[in-house]
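[Q] Does anyone have a clean structure-token version of this?
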Amino acid sequence: MGAVLLAYLPATSGQFQWDDDAHVTRPDLRSLGGLARIWTDFGATQQYYPLLHTAFWVEHRLWGNAVAGYHLVNVLQHGLGAVLLLLVLRRLQVPGAALAAAVFALHPVHVESVAWISEQKNTLSLLFYLGAAYAYLRFDEERRARDYAWASALFVLGLLTKTVVATLPAALLVAFWWKRGRLSWPRDVVPVLPWFAAGAVAGLHTAWIERAQLGAEGADFALSPAQRVLLAGRVAWFYLGKLIWPANLTFIYPRWTIDASSATAYAWPVAALLALGGLWAVRRRSRAPLAAALFFVGSLFPVLGFVNVYPFVFSFVADHFAYLPSLGLIAGLSAGAATVAARDARLGRVAPAAAGVLLIALGALTWRQSRIYRDAPTLYEATLARNPDCYLCLNNLGTLAARGGEMEEAARFYREAVRIKPDSPEAHNNLGSALAQSGKMAESLPHFEQAVRAAPNYVSARVNFGGVLFRMGRVAEAKAQFEAALRVMPDYGPARQNLAVIERLEAQGRPAP
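[A] Here you go.
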């Protein structure tokens, strides 16, 4: 645990980042009534993960907006997850369990999950995932109802924290096939059928929220079945590469163009199928490599591209997506290394030193990667250095400049974001607002028009648009924008207040300012 704390020390003093305000409990949810809403209102939080947001609710009660507390919780949960991984692997009698747990604890690909407060969903859900796995392994050995009840309860708690936990029953079946060479329907499959059902319900509900509430639909997500297969193949190899050689890690990777007409694009899924076929062919010698690969790919399934998740609008890959799937690959490689070292006396003598060098290198890379999470400008600028077309980073840097009153600088960032992604309603709305605040109201209008054209239900853009129209004396057009905003969100305060001003002026027969 001490090594984990040291490796993540730079992150513990980091500030809130991009999406943290959607996770750290909002003022309207900080009461007991707000806690009840977290559980009963699907739209109260960004995603319906009520146990996660209950944890944030408790944490806010303990230390409010003191950022260090949230970071320390993430780091401690990650370290505890490594301990639980060690226990599960030892229960399964996997060679090299200690090495696997240490590599998992210090691997730099996990920095995004640990250093970013929003990703407490990863570190917390892993505790329930591994706790449920350990309890179920006890049940598998001793067949006691008490162990099954504990395992099921932890599994459900995990689903209420992050839906990727739904992959656990399949992972258990892979582990049993690895150990026994075959699966028994009554012994192995039947007990986890309720888990599969619960996981399917949670997965469908999350997919609906991604589309209906987060906006994971539209042109950015319009992929054909062929494109999704091509994407899945490339995504799997991408994460494999980053876990084996964690170079050039970044917060937001470039978004690939998936071209189904390009013959080279098919190399990724074809190579994946050939690799799985090769592992299947050697299963009689050892089932371990295929089991590790099945766990890795199966745990990645929710983010392979077959279903839409909102972050795909920025990039098809993200380090935090690899947090849970990495367990299979890390355990498999560590087991292979331990097995080879045990068979060769010379390798066995140098193995501890080699493992030590590996862990020191991983820890150093994690420490260095953690440093970019110390504040938002550092994070965005480090991302732009490796992904110059990250329009989200440019948009957010513009927002930071605008908060500081530097409207010209803000407009510069927003213009670059609009250049990179001309159909971004957020970037157009922000650029329009920056121009209007600089006194360039006429210049701002086309950007507001583009924002509401691209996103007709974008209420804040309509209110900003209406506000500028009102200041320019175009009262009827301003009124239409406020009314359109209220049709989408009837209780939206700014729209209602601005409309009331216009109606009061109309009633008094006074001209607009």
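[Q] Thanks! Anything notable?
[A] The longest helix spans residues 345-370.
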